[in-house]
Design a protein that fits this description.
The complex is a heterotrimer.
Chain A (H helix, E strand, L loop, with lengths): L1 E8 L9 E8 L4 E5 L6 H8 L7 E6 L2 E2 L6 H7 E4 L12 H11 L4 H14 L15 H13 L5 E5 L7 H18 L2 E6 L2 H4 L4 E6 L2 E6 L1 H5 L2 H6 L6 H11 L11 H9 L6
Parallel strand pairs in A: 3-8, 3-9, 6-7, 7-8
Antiparallel strand pairs in A: 1-2, 1-4, 4-5, 9-10
Chain B lengths: L15 H4 L2 H17 L3 H18 L3 H8 L3 H14 L4 E5 L2 E4 H27 L2 H12 L9 H30 L9 H32 L18 H19 L3
Chain C lengths: L1 E11 L7 E12 L2 E6 L6 H8 L7 E6 L9 H8 L2 E4 L12 H11 L4 H14 L4 H4 L9 H13 L5 E5 L7 H18 L2 E5 L3 H7 L2 E6 L2 E6 L1 H6 L1 H6 L6 H9 L13 H12 L3
Parallel strand pairs in C: 3-7, 3-8, 5-6, 6-7
Antiparallel strand pairs in C: 1-2, 1-4, 8-9
The chains are: A alpha/beta, B mainly alpha, C alpha/beta.
């Protein structure tokens, strides 16, 4: 479990704190989506989770280890993988397998074990055929999947992703979200994903909305993402499907169930009693 | 644009030379380069040429690739040879206005051209058959003993790895910025002053971008447990095989010949 | 007056083994006072098409005419003058900001064209005003210190300041947050409505294209597959899906309802229209 207890943070030179008194528990194996407009403190939050930044007040405790204690630093970074939005800026080596090996090499693992981890991580993200490719020959979505494999090869229990899809085209975005969902379900890796695409947050177990450095609300995607009027105040866009349900309710179908998934809306409409 | 420039590229293959340990290849190339600069007689030239020639044949890389990679560098060879031919004193063979050609000039010109060409050939032999990563790993191991006297062998190898990774990224970035500024009317055919100002419009964003990337990369590396070279292992452990020792021995055996073949 | 593509083809790396055909047989007209949207899967040739529009690239086959003039046969100052008619905004244009102040960066284009003095000042003020950038607040600021949405608008203002008659934008909203995106789309519509410019935009967000453009071109593998109004294009949902495009979720719903409501119009633009359409279908109208 990652416990975030009373955490505040401010960057040196800026008087207003970026985060105020954040309290949050991240459970092993959960899929958490973190939403918020630009400048809400989302990115800073991700960097506190693996100890790249240390809180000004409060504590971040990863499976019992406080990120303040520098002697646990490597253990924490290995437990909490962090992925950034620009795939190009986080691939270190000029060949896919060498890049994925970078983390395990840093841990000082024997070559046979590194090879095994590289093979495994690339197969989880579906990139095993690209072992010998240079990154610049890959699409954005593929590069980001290689970057995910690179973090995965460290064997983390938590994967924190800072807007992993913001620089990708729709296909790449779909590839990455599908990979993360699979990772969460099949490997049990907890996913903490920052995004401003509300549609992506619909896949999560829990949604947290940040604004001006504070947690505004936490809840299931269905609870949070259907609050049409509030979402606008938080600088977020309501999911289109939720808007459609909302519009249908306004047109007299006042019991139309709110939904986030197009499949579900289609089924509901098809089952309408007065369809014929 | 960059696709037509093949010097220094790696051509994957399964030849004997490809499979050699990078350290063996480094050893061979360094010894050969020294030998080529040491010899100054025809037999010396022939022996070093033969030795390199055998090696090139063993790489199984078509000769045309070597030639294509060297084409842009031939200008340099031409200029160097011309300097030698025209400026070295000796018995004059041919004279026109202030130019004169001497027999020693021709000899030295030919020798210098040979040396330069061989340096390029050897450099290509190394890069064509060794992946950038093997090369950096090899360098790190060769320079490893020097870390005890404070030489940053690991850091140097890391810098090389990252540089090689980002060269294609910068090429792409650079050509995009050039197109963008040109379409805002930047013009590189005009006066020097104007061109220099326009160059700023290309270099500043390129560097800004590079710094941003460097910043991100540092964070990403740190997040992936990087703490420097100590305690790091390698995916591909490089080990010397019997062939490696054989090649090294043969190369070493060349050394006494070089002394004999010097005048 | 328009930008016309006459049987245009384009190849990269001509004569080399890795030669690729990026565009073939493109016939297209970009008019003033119109917003033209270009959609297509990644690698369909959208960016190449845009770069042909202001003559920084020339076609391998056919002709591109800007107001009846062919940039491929012009030289020196004439080509600069012609290029000035078509402003090209690259993807993530904020990456190309270089000057120490917003003012200087926006002034770069007009200065290159020889504009100086009070005319230069007017141009910068005008471009900032059009893009909703407060002159007093922002002109002296360093571009690096602005928000993502502001940087993007400064970069576009830098192109607008050369006073083009056509503005061509490659993925103008990519990477912006919802507020930044909505704001920018509004400004793009303003360019046509208030200034009568011809605007071309590429986006992989079909919602943006449908809500903003007058006419849409669908590109695939370097060829034009379809041209029409946003509604006409959305009506052919199945085709778009087959081309590998991602329909907006709402149109996806309408599309899937088609087998129970065969007369349903799948072209709705936005949730409100879609709800109306579903309502009509349920009531059997």
């Amino acid at each position: 479990m990652i416990e975030v207890a009373g955490v505040s943070f401010s960057y040196p030179g800026l008087e207003s704190p970026v985060l105020h008194d954040i309290n949050l528990e991240i459970r092993p194996g959960e899929f958490l989506a973190l939403l918020g407009r630009n400048g809400s403190g989302k990115s800073t939050f991700t960097r506190l989770l693996n100890g790249l930044l240390v809180p000004a007040a409060g504590d971040v405790i990863v499976d019992g280890y406080n990120t303040r204690d520098s002697s646990h630093r490597l253990r924490i970074r290995q437990q909490v993988g962090l992925l950034f939005s620009n795939p190009d800026n986080q691939l270190v080596a000029g060949i896919v397998e060498e890049d994925v090996a970078f983390g395990p090499e840093n841990l000082g693992l024997p070559a046979a074990e590194i090879r095994e981890r590289v093979r495994w991580a690339l197969s989880v993200v579906g990139m095993e055929e690209y072992l010998k490719y240079p990154p610049h020959m890959l699409s954005g979505g593929q590069k980001q999947r290689v970057a995910i494999a690179g973090v995965l090869a460290l064997g983390p229990s938590y994967m924190v992703l800072d807007e992993p899809t913001s620089m990708l085209d729709p296909r790449g975005r779909e590839e990455v979200v599908r990979t993360l969902t699979k990772l969460n379900l099949e490997q049990g890796t907890a996913i903490i994903m920052v995004t401003h695409f509300v549609e992506e947050a619909a896949a999560a177990d829990r949604v947290v909305v940040l604004d001006r450095g504070r947690v505004l609300v936490t809840g299931s995607p269905l609870e949070v993402l259907t609050r049409i009027d509030d979402l606008a105040d938080w600088g977020l866009e309501a999911p289109e499907i939720a808007l459609l349900c909302h519009e249908l309710r306004k047109r007299g179908y006042s019991h139309f169930p709110m939904a986030l998934d197009s499949r579900q809306v289609v089924d509901t409409i098809k089952q309408f009693p007065f369809k014929d | 644009m960059m696709n037509s420039f093949t010097f220094g590229q790696y051509i994957p293959g399964i030849s004997l030379v490809h499979s050699l340990d990078p350290r063996t290849k480094l050893f061979f190339v360094v010894i050969m380069m020294a030998a080529i600069f040491a010899v100054n007689t025809l037999p010396g030239v022939l022996i070093t040429a033969l030795f390199t020639g055998i090696f090139i044949a063993l790489t199984r890389v078509p000769l045309t690739i070597y030639f294509r990679g060297m084409r842009p560098l031939m200008v340099l060879v031409g200029i160097t040879a011309a300097f030698q031919v025209f400026l070295i004193p000796g018995e004059v063979i041919w004279r026109w206005w202030v130019f004169s050609i001497t027999d020693t000039g021709i000899e030295m010109g030919a020798l210098m051209s040979y040396r330069l060409i061989m340096v390029f050939v050897l450099a290509q032999l190394l890069t064509l058959t060794t992946s950038p990563l093997q090369l950096t790993d090899g360098l790190e191991m060769v320079l490893g003993p020097l870390t005890r006297v404070g030489f940053p062998a690991h850091e140097l190898a890391m810098i090389m790895t990252i540089a090689l990774r980002f060269i294609p990224v910068f090429f792409e970035e650079g050509s995009k910025i050039i197109l963008a500024q040109v379409s805002r009317g930047a013009d590189f055919q005009g006066s020097w002053l104007k061109s220099a100002r326009n160059l700023v419009a290309i270099m500043v964003p390129l560097f800004a971008q590079a710094f941003r990337r460097a910043d991100d990369l540092a964070l990403a590396m740190e997040s992936r447990c990087y703490t420097g070279g100590e305690g790091r292992t390698q995916l591909h452990e490089i080990t010397m095989s019997r062939t490696d020792y054989l090649v090294m021995a043969a190369t070493a055996a060349l050394v006494p010949f070089i002394f004999v073949l010097r005048t | 007056m328009s930008i016309r593509f006459l049987k245009v083809g384009f190849r990269y790396a001509r004569g080399l083994p890795w030669e690729t055909e990026a565009l073939k047989n493109i016939n297209l007209e970009v008019r003033k006072n119109e917003i033209l949207g270009i959609i297509g899967p990644t690698g369909s040739g959208k960016t190449t098409l845009l770069q042909l529009m202001n003559g920084i690239r020339h076609p391998s086959e056919g002709k591109v005419l800007i107001d009846d003039q062919d940039p491929a046969v012009l030289k020196g100052r004439e080509i600069t003058r012609l290029r000035q008619k078509v402003g090209l905004v690259f993807q993530s244009p904020e990456d190309q900001l270089f000057a120490n102040s917003v003012y200087e960066d926006i002034a770069f284009g007009p200065k290159n064209l020889g504009v100086a003095g009070s005319e230069l000042d007017n141009r910068v003020r005008w471009a900032m005003e059009v893009l909703d950038l407060g002159f007093e607040d922002l002109s002296r600021r360093r571009p690096q210190n602005l928000s993502g949405g502001q940087k993007r608008r400064v970069a576009i203002a830098g192109v607008l300041a050369i006073k083009p008659e056509y503005l061509v934008l490659d993925e103008p909203t990519a990477g912006l947050d919802p507020e930044g995106r909505k704001g920018l789309l509004k400004l793009i519509r303003k360019l046509r409505e208030d200034l009568g410019m011809g605007v071309v935009m590429v986006s992989h967000r079909l919602q943006d294209i449908m809500s903003t453009c007058d006419r849409v071109v669908v590109l695939e593998k370097g060829e034009i597959r379809k041209t029409g109004t946003p509604r006409e294009i959305m009506r052919s949902g199945q085709e778009l899906i087959e081309l590998g495009l991602h329909l907006p979720p709402i149109n996806m719903v309408l599309h899937e309802l088609k087998d129970v409501f065969p007369y349903l119009d799948t072209a709705a633009l936005g949730p409100e229209e879609a709800a109306g359409e579903i309502d009509r279908a349920i009531r059997g109208l």
